[in-house]
Amino acid sequence: MIDKTKYKYLFNVDSPGDIKEFSVVDLKGLCSEIRQYMVDVISQVGGHFGGGLGSVELTVALHKVFNTPSDLIVWDTGHQAYPHKIITGRRDQLHTIRRLNGLSGFLKRTESEYDAFGAGHASTSISAALGMATGSDILQTNKKVIAVIGDGAMTGGMAYEAMNNCGILKKNIIVVLNDNNMSIAPNVWQISNYFTEMISHPEYNRLKGAIWDLTGKLDDFGDRLRKVAARFESGIKSVITPGMLFEALGFRYFGPVNGHNVGQLVKLFTHIKDYPGPLLVHAITEKGKGYKPAEGHVQRLHASTPFDKITGKAIKKSEGKPSYTSIFGNAMVDLVKENSNIVGITAAMPDGTGLDILQQEFPQNYFDVGIAEEHAVTFAAGLATQGVIPVAAIYSSFLQRAYDQVIHDVALQKLKVIFAIDRAGLVGADGPTHHGTFDLSYLRMIPGMIVMAPKDEQELRDMMYTAVNKIEGPSAIRYPRGEGTGIQLRTNFEAIEIGKAEVLLHGEDVAILAVGNMVQYSIEAADLLKNAGINAEVINMRFIKPLDTKLLDNIANRFDKIVTVEENSIVGGFGSAVLEYFSDHNYKNDIVRIGLPDHFIDHGTQKELHRMIEIDPEGIFHKIKIFCKGKGIKEEVAV
Ligand SMILES: Cc1ncc(C[n+]2csc(CCOP(=O)(O)OP(=O)(O)O)c2C)c(N)n1
After folding, report:
1. How would you classify the pairing of strands 502-505 and 536-540?
2. Which of 57, 247, 373, 374 is catalytic?
3. Catalytic status, residue 593
4. 414 C-alpha to center of ligand 1: Å?
5. Which atom of ligand 1 is nearest to the CA of 150?
6. Homologous superfamily of the 4-304 domain (CATH)
């Protein structure tokens, strides 16, 4: 329960309109209450945390100065937008964040009119904001448009594509660079070294008093700004400010400013909001600001499960089974021990992918390229041309960004790049931006790509070994978020024959062809079917491409009824591959595909979502029972 008596301002703010008359003292009070409220609520329910704590003053200042929702604030990535949610009418639902039917953990246009643009993936904000500014111009709606982007998101190429275009189009747009020097892990943004160098340059410091010294005392800010602005027209600024790079791209650079001084931010935004053309405000912030345990935390509590408010320590659940992520990370270490030509590549997700384990053991075999999935893939392709064996560890939903690179730079050139695709299937609380629901569809159509899905942790290890040692061209291994099955692992690796499935249960009434984590679910469903008098054969297909066609011929000849099960979109995935094969070979069996429906699935726990769309063991059982016993079942079963 939240003790509302502790709050003087927060519960009087139901929308940004309520802070318009706030004094600087009030704004400061509100900022500290937003932090307090985030700690109170997120410590109980979990969620993204450090980024939001660092963006409180920016959020309050922007909503104070601009006329939202008519003016448009585009938050990049969206994990740092909890303060924005809190002051745009969603304060009282914050405890539902990331839960089934609750608030989204990111930005969502259908959730609030204040969410100008949906987000979840990084580096999109400047492009979207430029589109909005241009749209506002065309329709003459005279809206102010502000993009807020982190230094981590600035490592994504799209941000530069957008800035370049801003310089060309010269629309009125404000980009706020929320620079906390952190991505999830410490950021690998080379330009921040440039800023540091610039800011510490003696020449810059000598002239600092005369230029945009917004970090200091700014009581006479208005007058000085005008005077200094005039001098800048002569071009001095472009030579001596850290914003030279942005200036070269066509932005007017303001900063660096203290992103936690709300009064100063309000002044600055008020002054510049009517300036024409692209502006860039460089705000220095601190991830986890104002909450000691986050400030001392290596990842600044980027995201957390529920935690103890005092210590910041996660409230531990009992030790579970090892995650696929950690199995992958440890397998990388074992593989590198056998062959030092293997390297792991992550796009800013060392912990998320498990490659932090490799980084610790073999730092020279590890690369964090920033939030730059496209680059990661082509970088891997380049490495492969030289005989290095790159393993690009990228979440299923983030690999979507690098699709052309997978086709054009890797597959077309038949390069040996191994894609380790974590978070394949429904990821749970992160929701539709992060669900990995399409990779089987988008990978299996690529010529020469071998696509695998392990049924358990051992098979993941063996597939990695197979990809390294038995496959010459590109390959992909996709596995789900979360725990494995908990099986005992062999220490040695074993190669798996390419395109070979395995029959796990023999039966005669129906054949269940399953991939990945759906194999285990299918075995459990087969158990339930047995009790209902239906004997199912369960096959672990292992390969989505190439399919085990010998086995498919055998199945088609032995079974009238065949079911495919996958945690991928029903459109174009594994089941579709089986249908194509059967159709091409004139088999007329009765086939039902079980998978993810052809619509975006919201957030909830993985378990809840599996239940809801009936791809948990009970759901699979239920569907197959109808299929085997009923008539016209396909209509009922098809998802
Ligand atoms: C395309 C893409 N790749 C990876 C991620 C995962 N991710 C979420 S937040 C984040 C770090 C963002 O850093 P920054 O933009 O500096 O924001 P901060 O959290 O530091 O405020 C990353 C890598 C993502 N959301 N999108």
Report:
1. antiparallel
2. 373
3. no
4. 31
5. 15
6. Thiamin diphosphate (ThDP)-binding fold, Pyr/PP domains (3.40.50.970)
The CATH code of the domain at 324-478 is: 3.40.50.970
pLDDT at 318: 67
Compute the distance from residue 342 Cα to the ligand 1 centre, in Å.
26
H helices present in 419-456, as ranges: 439-444
Q: Is the pLDDT of residue 3 over 80?
A: yes
Domain boundaries, the chain: 4-304, 324-478, 502-637
CB crowding 187-212: b at 16 or more within 10 Å, else e = bbbebeeebeebbeeeebeebbeebb
The fraction of the chain above a pLDDT of 70, given in percent, is: 91
Mean pLDDT, the chain, integer: 92
Residues lining ligand 1, CB < 6 A? 51, 54, 77, 79-80, 121-122, 150-153, 178, 180, 182-184, 287, 302, 347-349, 371, 373, 398, 401
For 76, 189, 191, 195, 477, the CA distances from 148, given in Å and listed in that order, are 6, 17, 18, 19, 35
Question: What's the rounded Cα separation, in Å, for the pair 519 and 464?
Answer: 19
The string of pLDDT tens digits covering residues 486-501 is 999 999 999 999 999 9
How many angstroms separate the alpha carbon of residue 75 from the centre of ligand 1?
A: 12
CA angle 11, 14, 15 (to 5 degrees): 140
CATH number (3.40.50.920, 3.40.50.960, 3.40.1010.10, 1.10.287.3510) of 502-637 reads 3.40.50.920
Contact 100, 608 (CB under 8 A): yes
How far apart (Å, rounded) are the C-alpha atoms in residues 404 and 318? 42
**Cis peptide upstream of residue 480 (ω within 30 degrees of 0):** no
Residue with tokens 């992958």: 328
Encode pLDDT of 215-233 as tens digits: 344 444 445 454 544 444 4
Residues 6 or more apart whose Cβ sits within 8 Å of residue 131: none
Dump pLDDT digits (tens) for 324-355.
999 999 999 999 999 999 999 999 999 999 99
Kindly give the number of the ligand 1 atom that is closest to the alpha carbon of 371. Answer: 3
DSSP state, 129? H
